[in-house]
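Final report, Chapter 2: Outcomes

The project's central promise was a pipeline that accepts a single protein chain and returns its three-dimensional structure in a standardized token representation, suitable for archiving and comparison. That pipeline is now operational. To close this chapter, we reproduce one record exactly as it appears in the project archive, with the input sequence first and the structure output second.
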Amino acid sequence: MPLDSPDDLGTLTAVGSGLTRITLSQGQAPHGADPDLHGMFVIHAGTLTDEGLRESAMGAVHDDPEALNLWGGLIRRARAEAHVGASVVNPTTEARMHAPSHRHLPGAHDLASSGVVMLAAAGWNRYEFDDLA
């Protein structure tokens, strides 16, 4: 599905949309693109369940400097909007480790401030955001 603006991407990834992975390419992505996703920008959107919101991630692998600059711009834009700092907490032992460079976007911040648990991408650990502690 072609996107006409960055706002379209926000609409696609709205909480509860059911979309978990978005893959972007420059121009037309070939049908049946290589599963290693080389040359593409990938956003893995964490899922929201009754347990909480799973961690999201984004990244790109490319050997073309122009494409890397484009993808890097998307990452820089997200980083500029992000809140910084969290602690990772083991829910069983309550052991915690500070993750000062952990970033979370405004949507996750809003959900956390309303009581939604922020879960790691896998496993049972949770995040507690520094600016909400």
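Archive annotation: The helical segments are 6-12, 65-81, 106-113.
This record, like all others produced under the grant, will remain available to the consortium after the project formally closes.
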